[in-house]
Amino acid sequence: MRIGLLNNLRAGRNDAQVERLLGFLRRHPDVVHAETNSADVVPEALADLARQEVDILVVNGGDGTLQYALTEILENQAFDGRVPMIAPLRGGRTNMSAGDLGASKDPVRGFASLIDDIENGHLSERVFPRQVLRVQHDVNEQAEYGMFFGIGVIHRAIGLNHQWFENERAHGAQGALGATLVTASLLGRLATGDHTGILQPDKVQVMIDGELQDRSEFFMMLASSLDNLFSRMSPFWGTGPGGVQFSTIASNAHRIPRSLAGILRGKPLPHVTEENGFLSRNAKRIQLSLDCGFTVDGELFDPRPGRIIELTADRTVQFVRT
Predict the structure, then answer these.
(1) 104 belongs to a structural domain
(2) For residue 311, is it within any domain?
(3) Which helix (H) or strand (E) holds 135?
(4) Could you tell me if 172 and 247 lie in one domain?
(5) Quick one: which of 5, 57, 68, 269 has the fewest CB in 10 Å?
(6) What residue numbers bound the domain in which 214 lies?
(7) Is 319 helix (H, G, I), strand (E, B) or coil?
């Protein structure tokens, strides 16, 4: 079984961590690897690993690096239609997907543990099949693949997190901690009834499995195939046969301040119902008509008038815990 590493040298911007990983690779020459320092070179790096017939693709980077890799493999056929097992390391500033799989907080230690289990025949204990979101957002553009989609408060929190923590000293806070602090701040304002500025609701027409929804203004809209988001948030409590977990809070939802804590844990209070402006379902297909921006795994997409988005989760990837 051949192991390959997609190594984002800019992930986390931690030079010491990069050197540790490069030293680890020198001690394991059987691991083929391709280094990248920008998204532009990811396609060629993956093509190189595919040519070397990699079976397990280890991804050193954050959620953004993993999202690029998933898109190249599932949408652009980087492995010529083959989908390797994918093992994300916690090597970036935000590592929501790797964290949900239970990856080690130390990427080098996690990588070493994975190799040990492969050599000892225990790989199967680390494999977790997961559906992956497909986000088709414009007819003439490629679809994006990832594990999380967001509109509203979450989208704006991620944007503010990028802006507020851009200086070098703040990089340690730009990951899950930064996202948590900014999201908590915005949700706190929302809970006090502040609906101004960046907390103004977004206008979105929503269709769930062919059924047009009554509500059309939302403070928050989330979709994911993960069990938990950053800081162990799990704002999904719906049922249904689909692979897209989808939750919304409408602008006219009742008793939002009292509802938020339970919603974020996936344990809503009894009054949190669709009739009162709160929705959570497991859908096969979500269709959205909107003008506002959105996020896929922390990557921000700017507003565009008249955009149509379709969310599905028809592809399953064998993820491997590191």
Answers:
(1) yes
(2) no
(3) strand 127-136
(4) yes
(5) 269
(6) 148-296
(7) strand
Instruction: Please give the structure tokens belonging to residue 16.
Output: 């010491």
Count of structural domains within the chain: 2
Structure tokens at 296: 């896929």
In a domain, 140, yes or no: no
Reply yes or no on whether the pLDDT at 277 is more than 70: yes
pLDDT in tens, 158-188: 777 666 655 544 444 455 555 666 666 666 6
Domain boundary residue among 82, 107, 132? 132
Q: What's residue 211's pLDDT? A: 98
Mean pLDDT over all residues of the chain?
A: 90
Q: How far is CA 279 from CA 21, 122, 288, 296, in A?
A: 44, 41, 15, 20
Question: Does residue 126 sit in the same domain as residue 153?
Answer: no
- Over residues 43-100, the pLDDT tens digits come to 999 999 999 999 999 999 999 999 999 999 999 999 999 999 999 999 998 899 999 9
- Greatest pairwise CA separation for the chain in angstroms: 60
Query: Is 119 in the same domain as 154?
Result: no
Q: What are phi and psi of 246, to 5 degrees?
A: -135, 125
Model pTM score: 0.91
Are 159 and 252 in a shared domain? yes
Q: Is 181 exposed, middle or buried (0-12, 13-18, 19+ CB in 10 A)?
A: middle
Angle at 171 between CA 170 and CA 174, to 5 degrees: 95
Q: Which of 101, 132, 163 is the last residue of a domain?
A: 132
- Element spanning 136, H or E: strand 127-136
Question: Is 317 a domain residue?
Answer: no
Contacts of 85 (CB under 8 A, 6+ apart): 55, 56, 57, 127, 317, 318, 319, 320
Instruction: Report residue 195's pLDDT band, with 50, 70 and 90 as the boundaries.
Output: low
